[in-house]
């Protein structure tokens, strides 16, 4: 949900750091397409970057001096390599604002439905609470599922172009989601899912643009700190405006949001600088399909979608319905097929598995999946607690949740300092501790209690889990993979973060439904909520244990390394 200066800027670049050329006045020597991933080159550090770092590079002489040719046929020159250095201060401010709004609007899209869940549900005549999580889960599902392929498309067709497309796609489906008021809840859920593809395009390409625009240093760190701080602010803004528009008619929140997104797309066209581009060598349609890894992407996306749909549909229709576990079974069976395609068939694998063999990666992704799954449960049931059990209005509930914006901003900045002093392993332990503490506070909170006793404390504590785990994980993965695969590591963390939020809601919803006995009284509803929150505690506890194991592993490795010296 956030990005940190140390993780996204200091340790790993998620985008090209050179001016991109597609072709040149002199024809570069041709080289066969290899099975390695191709990417863009950082001239200053000789590292391969990009949301999907793809191929090693070669240097050729051109009219513009030395240039690099990557496996996608693009040239890169060291001249004027950092775009932000060529901008005036007002232009730079607008540029950073437009790109950071990718993070802001992503979380606003999450918040715009959570605060008015019951308003939307009443509009569609939903009388079962288990139907409501889909409004949030459908959105998070596609945000997490399509990030990797979106990063690859940015590498191939340009990150600025994909940023503009992301804003426009997001705007179109936000507008259609509002129009779904005239249809039914299934149409609205589909629109929410398609709406989530917009942020999945915005996030990797926005990070790529920032990574390519600044040299490593304090200015770049500050830009990424701003990007990270936008996450909790976006969630609060989305919730607040949803509550305001719900006082008139709830679809207006989606229509006004669509207008804002269109304005951001226009600003992106004007304010985001474009690197010089020349004509590239002709590329056949078949080669483009191979470069996108369409087969691997299709199988991987289908698998993730089916597994997630099964878990989030189960609380509604129960596991007694055959189609629920059939979808789950098909999704699970597609996983080994995806690995086979990536290892044996794909010329340009979307997920280069040979680069992800480190045990560090397994520990870190396990921590991230557990911690952010816990956060998804906490976020949904905190709102339900305020709206359903305490009878708060959407605006009052937003005010009660709003401290996450301040706490998250402080956590994002503090983490930048902590990473350099205590290291990523200890930072990950602290993050998992914050997740565990926050969910435990909510799970034990009584209905009739002052806001300041536990509700306020948990909204202050849990942002530290979010804003410490994300940068710590990206730093650890950055150290665990080769320089050519830094972008893949960043995209993988984003995928796990958003997908975990969605699937954990389905698992918690199953516990809720089986415990609340129909939810005919506040006591039964509370029992169901607590069951769901206990699932969150289990996930957070598992993440905490994994972080401790990783800390011990890291300590032993450092001890062995210092012993050799």
TrEMBL record:
| Transmembrane region(s) | 93-120, 132-151, 163-187, 223-246, 252-272, 292-311, 323-341, 361-383, 395-419, 426-445, 451-477, 489-511, 531-551
Describe the location of the Major facilitator superfamily (MFS) profile domain by residue ranges.
Answer: 95-555
Q: Which GO terms describe its cellular component?
A: membrane
Keyword list (alphabetical) reads:
Membrane, Transmembrane, Transmembrane helix
Ranges of biased composition (kind: Basic and acidic residues): 52-69
Subcellular localization is given as: Membrane
Secretion signal: which residues?
none
Which Pfam family, giving just one, matches this sequence? MFS_1
Q: Name one GO molecular function term.
A: transmembrane transporter activity
Tell me what this protein is called.
Answer: Major facilitator superfamily-domain-containing protein
- Per the UniProt record, the source organism is Cercophora scortea
């Amino acid at each position: 949900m956030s990005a940190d200066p140390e993780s996204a800027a200091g340790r790993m670049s998620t985008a090209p750091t050179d001016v991109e050329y597609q072709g040149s006045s002199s024809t570069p020597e041709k080289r066969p397409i290899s099975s390695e991933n191709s990417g863009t080159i950082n001239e200053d550090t000789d590292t391969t970057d990009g949301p999907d770092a793809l191929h090693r590079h070669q240097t050729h002489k051109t009219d513009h001096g030395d240039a690099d040719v990557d496996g996608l046929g693009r040239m890169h020159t060291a001249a004027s390599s950092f775009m932000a250095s060529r901008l005036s201060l007002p232009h730079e401010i607008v540029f950073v604002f437009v790109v950071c709004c990718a993070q802001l609007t992503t979380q606003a899209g999450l918040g715009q439905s959570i605060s008015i869940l019951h308003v939307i549900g009443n509009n569609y005549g939903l009388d079962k609470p288990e139907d409501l999580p889909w409004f949030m889960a459908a959105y998070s599902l596609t945000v997490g599922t399509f990030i990797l392929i979106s990063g690859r498309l940015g590498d191939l067709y340009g990150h600025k172009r994909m940023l503009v497309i992301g804003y426009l796609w997001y705007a179109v489906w936000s507008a259609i989601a509002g129009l779904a008021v005239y249809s039914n809840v299934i149409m609205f859920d589909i629109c929410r899912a398609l709406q989530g593809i917009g942020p999945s395009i915005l996030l990797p390409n926005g990070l790529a643009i920032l990574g390519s625009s600044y040299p490593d240093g304090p200015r770049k760190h500050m830009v990424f700190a701003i990007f990270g701080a936008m996450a909790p602010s976006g969630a609060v803004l989305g919730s607040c405006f949803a509550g305001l528009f719900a006082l008139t008619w709830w679809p207006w929140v989606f229509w006004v949001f669509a207008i804002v997104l269109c304005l951001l797309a226009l600003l992106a066209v004007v304010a985001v600088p474009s690197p010089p581009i020349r004509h590239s060598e002709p590329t056949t349609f078949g080669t483009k399909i191979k470069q996108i890894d369409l087969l691997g992407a299709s199988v991987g996306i289908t698998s993730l979608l089916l597994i997630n749909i099964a878990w989030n549909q189960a609380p509604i229709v129960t596991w007694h319905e055959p189609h629920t576990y059939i979808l789950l079974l098909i999704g699970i069976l597609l996983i080994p097929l995806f690995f086979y395609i990536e290892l044996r068939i794909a010329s340009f694998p979307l997920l280069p598995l040979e680069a992800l063999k480190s045990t560090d990666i397994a520990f870190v992704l396990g921590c991230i999946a557990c911690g952010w799954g816990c956060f998804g449960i906490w976020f949904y049931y905190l709102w339900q607690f305020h709206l359903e059990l305490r009878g708060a209005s959407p605006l009052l509930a937003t005010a009660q949740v709003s401290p996450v914006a301040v706490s998250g901003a402080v956590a994002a900045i503090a983490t930048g300092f902590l990473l350099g002093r205590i290291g990523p392993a200890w930072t990950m332990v602290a993050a998992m501790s914050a997740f565990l503490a926050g969910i435990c506070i909510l799970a034990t909170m009584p209905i009739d209690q002052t806001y300041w006793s536990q509700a306020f404390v948990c909204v202050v504590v849990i942002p530290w889990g979010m804003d410490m785990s994300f940068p710590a994980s990206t730093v650890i993965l950055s150290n665990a993979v080769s320089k050519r695969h830094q972008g893949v590591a960043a995209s993988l963390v984003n995928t796990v973060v958003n997908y975990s939020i969605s699937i954990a809601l389905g698992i918690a919803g199953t516990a809720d439904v089986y415990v609340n006995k129909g939810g005919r009284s506040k006591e039964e509803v509370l029992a169901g909520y607590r069951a769901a929150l206990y699932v969150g505690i289990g996930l957070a506890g598992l993440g905490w244990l994994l972080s401790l194991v990783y800390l011990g592993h890291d300590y032993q490795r450092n001890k062995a390394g210092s012993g050799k010296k």
